[in-house]
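dumping this here before i forget
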Amino acid sequence: MTGNSTVRLTSSVESGEASPERPAPAWATLTATFFGVGRLHPGPGSWGSAATVLLWAALAFALPPAARTLVACGLTSLVILLGIPAATRVSRAAQKKDPQFVVIDEVAGQLFTLIAVPLSWKTLLAGFILFRAFDIIKPPPIRQLERLPEGTGIVLDDVAAGFFAGVVMHLLLHFGLLVP
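structure:
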């Protein structure tokens, strides 16, 4: 019996599955849930996006306009780089492919949407709506990115949704259909 459990434990570790007794590290849980925002209901993804918009607005208004795009790119990159391993560890511990309470992907995608967007309540609201629409509908090729393994698939499909939302946002701004 002991030999079988050892083999099973080894197989579990090699396959990347988490055992129910091993919770995700605290850093991963705090990151993946965006400091607990992912535990809010209903719609944890919308809460994650809304928190991101509000925090970005507060930070961006405190920055000189010339620094906003660079800071948004840097923050987006940082969130992606930390979010992928955090989402991987938390999803393994939860034994779910993409747990709803993991919202770091929404943070990354929402930030991506707002890169180089002028700050106003209209653009922030439009960015929120556009990102949530692309994230929920997931038109091709966004949906295909979900097939990537673990945290990579969890995060990158939302980054792609943020990219498409950002393109639409910039087109709306360019053609004067959205005035900041």
